[in-house]
Amino acid sequence: MTAPAGKLSAEVFTAPNGSLAYTVSYDGRIVCDTSSMGVTIDGTDTFEEVSLRLAASRERDESYPVRGVHDLARDHAREYVWEVTHRPTRYVYTLETRLYDDGFAYRFILPGRGVRHVGDEAAEWRLPADSRTELGVETADLCRRVDLGPGIGTEHGILARARTDHAAAL
């Protein structure tokens, strides 16, 4: 998968342990090493023991009015839609990924009826060992920058939980 300008690329795959994973590269250099992604529904980690199938892809190039510095925002990306099946429960859901020229994004679309409990969404970013990273942390009354320094690599990572408003270095 590549972004419109071709410099940013990503792969989505099942890791050797059967969990959902991805990598991101820029201009041939890995910027996000093999990292897990997933969601827990009704107490089940639906991102483990999965099969993955590319269902559709397209290039999107849309503009819409905004307030602020610019009058118009541009949404230009390559979008890839994946069918994910949690093998133990046969639950099928959708993973949408987008590659912009300056970033990678994903979201889960989770079908179901009745009351469902999404207990957690885990997003992991495993940075190459030679990375030097600055992380912006925001809370309701605090905005600060945290310098993680060198050496945040494949044995370390940054884990963000959707139900909290913080990120922690592992």
| Fraction of residues in helix | under 10%
Question: What is the number of beta strands?
Answer: 13
Query: What is the string of SSEs from the N terminus onward?
Result: EEEEEEEEEEEEE
Q: Distance between the terminal alpha carbons, to the nearest Å?
A: 28 Å
- The secondary structure category is mainly beta
Integer-rounded radius of gyration: 17 Å
What ranges have pLDDT less than 50 throughout 5 or more consecutive residues? Answer: 140-170
Which helices and strands occur, and which strands form pairs?
Elements: E1 8-14, E2 20-26, E3 29-41, E4 44-45, E5 50-65, E6 72-86, E7 91-100, E8 103-109, E9 118-125, E10 132-139, E11 142-150, E12 158-161, E13 167-169
Antiparallel strand pairs: 1-2, 2-3, 3-4, 3-9, 5-6, 6-7, 7-8, 9-12, 10-11, 12-13
Question: What keyword list fits this structure?
Answer:
4-stranded antiparallel beta sheet; 170 residues; mainly beta; single chain; disordered C terminus; 64% strand
Give a structural overview.
The chain is an all-beta fold and 170 residues long. The chain has strands spanning 8-14, 20-26, 29-41, 44-45, 50-65, 72-86, 91-100, 103-109, 118-125, 132-139, 142-150, 158-161, 167-169. Strands 1, 2, 3, 4, 9, 12 and 13 form a seven-stranded antiparallel sheet that branches. It is globular, with a radius of gyration of 17 Å. The model is unreliable at 140-170 (pLDDT under 50).
